[in-house]
Each structure stands twice: as structure tokens, then as C-alpha cells.
Here is the input.
Amino acid sequence: MLHRDHPWIGRDVEDTATGRRGTLRAIAPDGDKPRPVAWLQPPGGDTEWTTDPGSLAAPAPITPDTPAP
Here is the structure.
């Protein structure tokens, strides 16, 4: 489904474009945009948002509770 692999999928990351933190859910297309975007989910669920994958930073450390990508 045109999803891309990324080592941070399933981890909390910072979106430097917005200053928000969320769980990286996927790197995938968004409609007819020419480049894939990063899909993030805020803590507690709520509505996902998208950002440029280059805006991702500061991934949470991997722990035994970190979900597998």
C-alpha cells in the first residue's frame, strides 16, 4: 500500500515543524501529494496529523515495551 519502512515507526518522535510529539504510525502517501508524508498520532489517540519525514527528530528510546515496527 505504498508504505515505507522507517526505523522509528511505533516510537514517540518530535515533529520539529509543529513542536508536537506523537507516535510515528507510517510513512505513506497523503492523497495525491507527490511525496510520502509521516503520519503521527498524538498521545491518547485523537486525530492523526501529517508532516514531512525530514521534520522527525528525537525518537523515544527503545525499551522492552516499544512495539515492533
